[in-house]
């Protein structure tokens, strides 16, 4: 993702999810982004969990991945349980959701907070929302992962409009948008990228924009 750097205090619900790898000692390898929806529960993408038997750790409150000298310290927690959506399909990425249950709750702070969950009947069409992440700045091998957390504004696209546009691509005229998907973006030169998987797409709660409240 190549766009605006995030203000340190602006996106306290965003998490980095790491996995532990033996090479030859324990080393944190960045895997995906995620969202804190409860002090002890993290929401991410199921495709970010290729092996439930591996050890995973989350990091809350990270901003600059290259320094520990930040205004507020990050918090690390081990993942004790992983719940994959029962209808998840790896090939098509239908129902690409996973919940990570932490071994202990994180402490809510200036840089660590939960994101609200919308009502299932919430209408989001045309609402300007935001994606965040440390993903690559361009697609392909030339792309570089970001050091500072980035954000990009993406409008929600109405489902029928999205499906009609996707049918004009190589997906073909019979493509049907699965109910588990949501569409956002469509603007030239603005998108998420490799490394942003699992990261949140959050929308301001109407009437509470000045309170920095998102779902």
From TrEMBL:
Pfam family, one: Trypsin
Origin superkingdom: Eukaryota
InterPro entries, alphabetized: Peptidase_S1_PA (IPR009003), Peptidase_S1_PA_chymotrypsin (IPR043504), Peptidase_S1A (IPR001314), Ser/Thr_Proteases_Immune/Dev (IPR051487), Trypsin_dom (IPR001254), TRYPSIN_HIS (IPR018114)
Listed SUPFAM superfamilies: Trypsin-like serine proteases
Residue ranges constituting the Peptidase S1 domain according to the UniProt record: 8-215
GO BP terms: proteolysis
PROSITE patterns: TRYPSIN_DOM, TRYPSIN_HIS
Keywords, in A-Z order: Disulfide bond, Glycoprotein, Signal
Keyword Iron applies: no
Gene3D superfamilies registered for this protein in UniProt: Trypsin-like serine proteases
Keyword Cell division appears in the UniProt entry: no
A GO MF term: serine-type endopeptidase activity
Annotated family: Belongs to the peptidase S1 family. CLIP subfamily.
PANTHER family, sorted: TRYPTASE-RELATED
Protein's UniProt name: Peptidase S1 domain-containing protein
Organism: Photinus pyralis
